[in-house]
UniProtKB/TrEMBL annotation, chain A:
Annotated membrane topology: Multi-pass membrane protein
Family membership noted in the UniProt record: Belongs to the binding-protein-dependent transport system permease family.
The species this protein was found in: Paracoccus albicereus
Name of the protein in its database record: ABC transporter permease subunit
Chief location category: membrane
Entry-linked Pfam families: BPD_transp_1
Keyword field contains rRNA processing: no
TrEMBL record, chain B:
Major localization listed first in the record, in broad terms: membrane
Domain (ABC transmembrane type-1): residue spans on this chain: 33-259
InterPro entries: ABC_transp_permease_HisMQ (IPR051613), MetI-like (IPR000515), MetI-like_sf (IPR035906)
Alphabetized UniProt keyword annotations: Membrane, Transmembrane, Transmembrane helix, Transport
Record carries keyword Transport: yes
Stated family: Belongs to the binding-protein-dependent transport system permease family.
Membrane topology designation: Multi-pass membrane protein
Cell compartment(s), UniProt: Cell membrane
Pfam families: BPD_transp_1
Sequence intervals crossing the membrane: 27-50, 71-92, 137-160, 247-268
Name recorded for this polypeptide: ABC transporter permease subunit
Length: 276, 292
């Protein structure tokens, strides 16, 4: 018996990162091809989502603390950053950053005798990632700042009573509580970010050698077959799986963050996007 | 626009810029900001209506209606909205053309010919003989439907949550007064749910504003379309030659959106204050203390 879609998986399984068949299917467009190729595109969604979330997490923490700072020179830039990226559409941010990166000199920028190459920045893997990192950093920073403001006063007084100050107090008392309070909203943000990665190849960033994300291939098939009722539901199916996976992963972290509290087994109620 | 702009080649400096910014295509660019505002003005009430229907359906006692409502409200949880924006207009277009094909044409012929979707000329939507504005209005209309469906689902989420947030005791009291389920809904549930719905709905309004540039993906000539069109490099063959200025056009759009969201936030803050007056919530309590 022939393995399910074996031929298609060897041909197109890693097509999105340039391994396997070079040409996209041009006839037939059977279910196997669509399932495998759209799934292959999901590699890019995972790449953008995971990297942007990881890098953005650290920036968001720094920005959230800066926004809570007493010093205006720290607070104002943080507020401006959050306002800029939360107040404008991600779609426009993609366009703007792409146009700005294109204007950089092609040959590179000479610094101290070295030439810093710039052409890689206009590629989707770097430029779009940059936008996504900054975008999610701004949204997460707002969430973390809200949580930081909600840290109970009693916790801080208890830390003072133990003689904890500065970094130690932040690391041991403030930060864990801030994460615990922010986690449900942060879960939403993570899910939204993964959904937002589908925008990358529909903004101005070009798909190098037709190596695109899941929605890029879905719309390729929908255009070729004039039938939106197969390719888009396949992409939707993959994203539902991805969302469920994210919810369970973040749920594990949430239980760990809440393990000292009664009722820690409670699941996060996922309210899509509405907390953004 | 101005008589002095008749010969662009002779213009200099500020006057060149003034003539450039009032050229015919630029006026279309400014008008496209109106397209965005129109989309917001049309979509918001329809989406709210869809959301209300979805929320009521998910609370229904009739099982199939309830399932429909629950599927509708939860579909946006797992699926990126962009998929809907790409899917709905094409699906709608094909569905309508298919129906018209069945009615208006020789229906023995299948619409599927190989990988092509072909309907007879009389079934085309809009007809290929229609003027340009009909095509534009049709494209805009399908976009509005797509936006209304997606944001209706979001609104249904918010309203469903808000309806559940109305204290049980309120509804039970109404029942104790002998009101029928319908009266309870109309006289107690709906008036009371708005305070709980406002934070979610205002958030949704912000998301709707930030989703409007996706009109570009649907082929509508919106601000993104014109920014790319006007900003691109213009050679000497054009009346106003200039290098690649797309960055500046996108900066202008960015400022437009920042102003929109900033202004909306101010209005929402006021509205929230207004609605929490006299409510047994934290916000209402704070207002009462200030007043007392």
């Amino acid at each position: 018996m022939k393995l399910v879609c074996a031929q298609e998986i060897t041909d197109y399984g890693l097509r999105a990162i340039g391994i396997g068949e070079r040409l996209l299917p041009r006839s037939d467009y059977d279910l196997c091809q669509q399932f495998v190729l759209i799934g292959s595109g999901l590699i890019w969604n995972l790449y953008y989502g995971i990297l942007a979330l990881t890098i953005g997490f650290f920036i968001a923490n720094a920005v959230a603390v800066a926004k809570a700072s007493r010093h205006a020179w720290l607070r104002l830039p943080a507020e401006g950053f959050i306002f800029l990226f939360r107040g404008s559409p991600l779609f426009i941010q993609f366009f703007l950053v792409y146009e700005a990166l294109v204007l950089l000199p092609r040959a590179g920028i000479p610094i101290f005798g070295f030439t810093v190459a710039t052409d890689w920045l206009t590629k989707a893997w770097a430029g779009a990632l940059l936008v996504l990192v900054l975008n999610t950093a701004a949204y997460s920073a707002q969430i973390f700042h809200g949580a930081l403001m909600a840290v109970p006063k009693g916790d801080l007084e208890a830390a003072d009573a133990y003689g904890m100050t500065g970094w130690k107090r932040f690391r041991r008392v403030v930060w864990p509580t801030m994460m615990r309070l922010a986690w449900p909203a942060y879960t939403n943000e993570a899910i939204f970010l993964f959904h937002a990665t589908t925008l990358v190849f529909f903004s101005s960033f070009p798909a190098f050698r037709q190596q695109g994300d899941a929605l890029y291939y879905a719309s390729y098939f929908a255009d070729k077959t004039f039938n939106p009722f197969v390719a888009y539901p396949i992409a939707a199916f993959y994203f539902i799986l991805l969302t469920l996976l994210l919810i369970s992963l973040f749920g594990v972290v949430n239980r760990r963050l809440n393990r000292h509290l009664p009722g820690a087994q409670k699941r996060i109620r996922y309210r899509p996007q509405l907390i953004r | 626009m101005f008589a002095s702009c008749a010969d662009p080649a002779s213009l200099e400096g500020l006057q060149w810029l003034m003539c450039y910014l009032t050229s015919g295509t630029h006026l279309l660019f400014y008008a496209s900001f109106g397209t965005v505002l129109l989309l917001l003005a049309i979509t918001a009430p329809i989406a709210l209506l869809f959301g209300f229907g979805g929320a009521m359906a998910s609370r229904s006692r009739i099982a199939p209606l309830r399932w429909f409502g629950q599927v509708y409200t939860s579909m946006v949880r797992g699926i990126p909205d962009i998929i809907f924006f790409l899917f709905v207009p094409i699906a709608l277009d094909q569905g309508l053309e298919y129906l018209r094909h069945k009615i208006l044409c020789d229906s023995n012929q299948s619409v599927w010919q190989g990988n092509d979707f072909v309907v007879c000329a009389a079934a085309k939507l809009p007809l290929s003989t229609s003027p340009q504005w009909v095509h534009q209005a049709y494209g805009f209309g399908t976009a509005v439907v797509a936006f209304a469906i997606v944001f209706g689902a979001f609104a249904a989420n918010v309203l469903y949550g808000a309806m559940n947030a109305v204290p049980r005791a309120q509804l039970e009291t109404a029942e104790a007064y002998g009101m029928s389920p319908r009266q309870v809904t109309r006289r107690v549930l709906i008036p009371q749910m708005w305070t709980y719905a406002i934070p979610g709905l205002s958030n949704l309004w912000m998301i709707l504003i930030k989703a409007t540039p996706l009109l570009f993906l649907l082929g509508v000539e919106d601000i993104v379309y014109w920014a790319r069109e006007l900003g691109g490099t213009k050679t000497a063959a054009f009346s106003y030659p200039h290098p690649d200025w797309r960055l500046y056009y996108f900066l202008a759009i960015l400022v437009f959106y920042l102003l929109m969201t900033w202004g909306s936030q101010r209005i929402i803050d006021r509205l929230t204050r207004r609605l929490s007056r006299g409510q047994a919530t934290m916000g209402g309590e704070a207002l009462r203390k200030v007043g007392a």
